[in-house]
Write a structure and sequence with these properties.
Chains A, B: Keywords: DNA-binding, Transcription, Transcription regulation. The structure is a homodimer of 323-residue chains. The first copy, chain A, has 323 residues and is α/β, with parallel strands linked by helices. Chain A is built from 12 helices and 12 strands. Chain A folds into 3 domains: 43 residues, 434 Repressor (Amino-terminal Domain) (Orthogonal Bundle); 129 residues, Rossmann fold (3-Layer(aba) Sandwich); 123 residues, Rossmann fold (3-Layer(aba) Sandwich), CATH 3.40.50. In chain A, helix 8 packs parallel to helix 9. The structure holds a DNA duplex (30 and 30 nucleotides).
DNA sequence: ACGGTGTATGAAACTAGTTACATGTGTCAA
DNA sequence: TTGACACATGTAACTAGTTTCATACACCGT
């Protein structure tokens, strides 16, 4: 900038004024500075600006993975909303590992993020200490708990699981196999599972497997004969189950009913169309972005928001008369 | 930092040394500074560090959308690789709009990104001018062109389209409907389409529709009777087509064959399993990350990389004997 | 006792901007 | 003609750290 000032025969203050939307700089001076800027290919340093304004306009998002429709939809909506508020989104993946989450949080803090959006409410002590120290706003998503210390913007995973279960029960099913992803370090899955156990209307058998199409497809080969319905705690598992059942020569829903949770965009165009519980992840992303932007601008801590999940009954669940 | 120095009874230089991995600071002084840091909850300013080092360790990614498996897989791999090299990923979506891409690029530049990963090779003049000025490394992906001015790391979209076409031709199909997404502002789709027109082994009818399951499902209701195969330029369209054909009472592949391009993870577990051309997007993400990191560290311009696409023949294409 | 060497530390100059305050000039009204 | 005021601009003090260079002191060998 000193160079530009010298080249234009003005002071650095004047160059600074021109660079940041000149308020009261003479027309002539303005163009003289602009020429110098062009001649020297001058670009102002973002870091230097940030040091003065104290702002970076960056938000960090910590998600288990980007390679899953549920998180990428969420992030898409989040990014769109944040962009509207002048914020940019820095993404880091945690693979559901709290230690890695804490490490990546530190990285983002060292970048200068002004706030965080994270998945779930379980965080390592390191992470907790970090955000307390930096006084960084954090919003937890994919979860709803009005009493959580960090504001949650999401849905009640227990309710979602119960909606799926009740649908199966309503349709006459009582021998149900629950296909779950790992509950280790995953409070969303744990909440879904916890809501199911203790249910007295049906006999539930729970199986914990990796959340992949292949694992679910392989697993359904070993389903006990008395099972009439499959409750998959995520649509990816349900898709795998559908595939695996077909491979075993079983018809859905004639031989066995299947329901999922997530309602991925592709689920309704499967064959048979997959019954599922819709999770409002786009809305969640927009809400989280809006709320976090507000929090940062006003300094007022965000309030938790509960978004409703919705049962989407489709053809993969059949009504049966109990034996 | 001045406060910490005063509190510990040392100079700012010493505090600075302690904060950045003390090399030669006396044990006693070190702990005295640490106490002061803890007492005052001091956290160093990333902006001030950046201003001195001239580094931000941020990479910007510009993609059409996050809400599409092909881009989110790519970004997942990219983020993982960049993290290994100490870089963080800032994501911005462009919706395939060059003007918006340029705007978002400017935003990211004002954040201080040290490099860009973009989709395709078509950029607005504004964008071009911007990166020339800032001398920011840019890598174009999802495309391969060894002669492009910006290095490309990706696959040949024309080859991918031809692989799909040749498979259909090999299986005896000559009356083919091509379902394409919009070519407007999308050089990847355009390249695929261009590779097909001029083909003499089959009669091609091209239809351009939005890239959604619903649009494809609706469209297949109007397929001319003589068509024996559907070539979808993306798996999302193929999935929609599969769904729509079923709705029309047509069997795949008995009544009509369908092939896609992308090979989304879910495609092989559809019914029927979808034949497709596999695009190595994970590898592309890893390569792009690796290469860009190298470029930034060494200053040596990256070389283009061509990744092979691969035909995945599955059950959705049937061999027929030409009438 | 003296000089050489090494380590620990501080003062001040640096990174690249922004901004408060002072100053100079020109216009207009009293 | 002079005071008041607006406007344009420069000076210098800020933002928050890093780094160079100088210095002080301890230790060791002669």
């Amino acid at each position: 900038m000193r160079d530009v000032a010298r080249h234009a025969g003005v002071s650095v203050a004047t160059v600074s004024r021109v660079m940041s939307g000149a308020s009261n700089v003479a027309e002539a001076t303005q163009s003289r500075v602009q020429s110098a800027v062009d001649a020297l290919d001058f670009v102002p340093s973002p870091a230097a600006r940030a040091i003065n304004s104290g702002r970076t306009y960056m938000i960090g998002a910590l998600v288990p993975t980007l390679d899953h429709a549920i998180f990428s939809r969420f992030l898409d909506a989040l990014e769109l909303t944040l962009a509207d508020h002048g914020f940019s989104l820095v993404v880091a993946t945690t693979n559901d590992d709290p230690e890695r989450e804490a490490q990546r949080a530190l990285d983002l803090l060292n970048l200068g993020v002004e706030g965080f959006v994270v998945s779930g409410i379980t965080r390592s002590a390191t992470f907790e200490a970090l955000i307390k120290r930096h006084k960084t706003p954090v919003i937890a998503t994919s979860y709803f708990d009005p009493n959580s210390e960090t504001p949650t913007i999401g849905y009640d995973n227990g309710t979602a699981a119960r909606q799926a279960l009740h649908h199966l029960v309503d349709m006459g099913h009582s021998d149900i196999l629950v296909l779950s992803g790992p509950t280790w370090n995953n409070d969303r899955t744990k909440a879904r599972l916890d809501a199911l156990t203790g249910c007295t209307q049906a006999r539930l058998t729970v199986r914990e497997i990796p959340v992949t199409v292949a694992a679910a497809a392989d697993h359904v080969a070993t389903i006990p004969a008395h099972i009439t319905a499959l409750l998959c705690l995520s649509d990816v598992l349900a898709q795998g189950a559908l595939h695996g059942l077909r491979r075993c020569g079983l018809e859905v829903p004639e031989d066995i009913s299947v329901i999922g949770i997530d309602d991925l965009p592709s689920s309704h165009s499967l064959w048979p169309p997959l019954s599922s519980v819709h999770l409002p992840v786009r809305r969640m992303g927009a809400c989280a972005g809006e709320t976090l932007a507000q929090w940062i601008e006003t300094g007022e801590r965000a309030a938790p928001i509960n978004l409703e999940t919705r049962l989407e009954p489709r053809a993969s669940v059949r009504r049966i008369t109990p034996a």
